[in-house]
Every structure is written in structure tokens, then in C-alpha cells.
Specification:
With 145 residues, the protein is an alpha+beta fold. The protein contains 3 helices and 9 strands; from the N terminus they run ββαβββαβαβββ. The protein has a domain of 88 residues: 2,3-Dihydroxybiphenyl 1,2-Dioxygenase, domain 1. Strands 1, 2, 3, 4, 5, 6, 7, 8 and 9 form a 9-stranded mixed β-sheet that branches. A hairpin with a 2-residue loop joins strand 1 and strand 2. It starts with a strand and ends in a 6-residue tail after the last strand.
Length: 145
């Protein structure tokens, strides 16, 4: 079911997961203790993910190393000291990323990335939530039905 909230039409939760500072410890917990079927993303051994729709209710679950999240947002492996270090990431796939981005800007939110096409084909706008979650509004073509 599509929902429109304040000018942003959210289609589904595209993905969720922790942002890791020690991928080995996180892998031990999520894969070995909880039994999640995590595997490295092709070409990126540190980014551990589940296959599409393996976990009911989640299109994409992954452990995202902090250095890679920083690289995606700032083009550097270091998270800026003036921003809270996020503990998790959450992405909402939206009907219109340009409209969603404009709505967030109009509401005064500080965007870390604005409507950028990632090398893997996803369009994304990212910002930090009040709780310190790295939130994305996205268009993720391979997750759409």
C-alpha cells in the first residue's frame, strides 16, 4: 500500500541494518549468534547482506561499515567529527525522489547527500534523523515489483 506523508510518497522500507565499527564482531553476532544468512556483497567483502526478500518484511538487510557509509555521504572514509556517528541506517523507497528531496529541504533538514545516483544504480538522498540514524529516501530499481 502506498502512503503519502507530507508530500513524500513512501512505497516501502528498502533496507535497514546496523552501521558497524567492527565488522567482525557484528558478523559474529548477526550471522553466528542469530543465524542470519549474511554474505559479502560482490566486490565488497566488508558489506555483509542478505539476499533479496530472505527476511520477511525486509527487502534488504546489511551490515554497513562506518567507513563505507562515510564514503557514500562525504567521499571520505572518516565520519565528520561535527556530526553524531550513526548506529544504524534506514532507507525508504519513494515514488519521486526529487519531490522527496525538495520536501526535506523545504522543511529545513540538513541533507548529507541530495538526489545522487550511486554507482550501483540507486538514487539516494541521505540525512541524519533526530535519533542519529542515517536515513535515506531512495529509488532502488531492483527492489521494486
Amino acid at each position: 500500500m502506498k502512503q503519502s506523508y507530507c508530500g513524500i510518497e513512501i512505497l516501502f522500507v528498502a533496507g535497514f541494518g546496523p552501521i558497524t565499527q567492527n565488522t567482525g564482531e557484528s558478523k559474529a553476532f548477526y550471522q553466528e549468534a542469530l543465524g542470519l544468512p549474511l554474505k559479502p556483497m560482490e566486490g565488497n567483502e566488508e558489506y555483509l547482506l542478505t539476499e533479496h526478500d530472505v527476511l520477511s518484511g525486509v527487502k534488504h538487510f546489511a551490515l554497513w561499515p562506518l567507513a563505507q557509509a562515510a564514503q557514500s555521504c562525504f567521499g571520505s572514509d572518516r565520519w565528520p567529527q561535527d556530526l553524531p556517528v550513526p548506529q544504524a541506517w534506514l532507507e525508504f523507497d519513494v515514488a519521486d525522489i526529487a519531490e522527496a528531496t525538495a520536501t526535506l529541504v523545504a522543511k529545513g533538514y540538513r541533507l548529507l547527500v541530495a538526489n545522487r545516483l550511486e554507482p550501483w544504480g540507486q538514487s539516494v538522498t541521505r540525512l541524519l534523523s533526530p535519533e542519529g540514524i542515517l536515513v535515506g529516501v531512495t529509488v532502488t530499481p531492483w527492489l521494486r515489483d
